[in-house]
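Inputs:
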Amino acid sequence: MNPAGKRDPLPGWAAQVVRWQARHGRNHLPWQGTPDPYRVWLSEVMLQQTQVATVLDYYARFLQRFPDVHALAAAGIDDVLALWSGLGYYSRARNLHACAVQVVHRHGGTFPRSAAELQSLPGIGRSTAAAIASICFGERVAILDGNVRRVLARALGFGADLAVGANERALWEQATALLPQRDLARAMPRYTQGVMDLGATVCLPRQPACDACPVAGLCVARQQGRAQDYPVRTRRLKRTAQSLWLLWAHTRDGAVWLRQRPTPGVWAGLYSLELFDSEADLVAAVPQHHRASVHALPAFKHVLTHKDLHLHPVRVQLPARTRLAPGGAWHPAAQWPGLGLPAPVRKLLVQG
Ligand code: SF4
């Protein structure tokens, strides 16, 4: 029995994960080996939808610019979005900033120690809260991000549909029952890191390396020869598509017209070229005597999580005195790196 009075569904699991992590897990990433919740939180948020290789650079730049939660809270949101530019999922950056402000103003600059309290902060969900609390403070709480869900569903042979809330809750319960039961200050950080490492390096979505897996002897899916059948999730998010026309207006000196996007909506809070739903709308926004010189560039696709954006850039040179829309302005190239630009807009401008 574990501390919650639940029977351990896979006896010996936690000890094996902890042992394996110490020897074979990822122990050299820059956010590892530190109990500093600021660093762990920052890495967890960055890793939510982004690969480790991409996060490494951003993490280093972020820490250099904002070495602690006070520095981040004191920054303007535009500075934060500019540093985040290219990582995508910009609501993460907005929540990151809002969370830093709350930690400083409501908690005196110290992160709360329990997962329950951490979860009340902006952008910190149940799994992220558990990662911070277990890694930094040794709390006995389970994470269940996408990778870990796959590892545990396979190991347990958990075949219920995780699109159903009750089944998801049942898997959280099982995940909790599997946690280490003693020496939590030492075991919990390693265990949490270990299940994440298993999902990222061994129990891969398409080709799990079961022969190299430290828990193969316990794994129900392995015994059944059915690793690919787990986890079960029936409800698929429906992808949508949207076409947008981008007005790439520039002056003779190369300054570009940019305006901060409204919230909510596509690229909320970022600085973008003016966006239109149709070419006709775009042309109508160009002063009449310059319409003949608009020049359509090849369209391209930009993929967001649940949406494909079909982007149609249209270029035109305008006099610097032109004002296209309230709130916008001409920005010379020297200012672009300091602005939060959506990745495809930045790419367009840089390619020139
Ligand atoms: Fe995943 Fe295979 Fe290990 Fe089971 S034995 S946890 S399916 S890698």
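The pocket of iron/sulfur cluster is lined by residues 151, 154-155, 202-203, 208-210, 213, 215-216, 219, 221-222, 227 (CB under 6 Å). Flag for discussion at group meeting.
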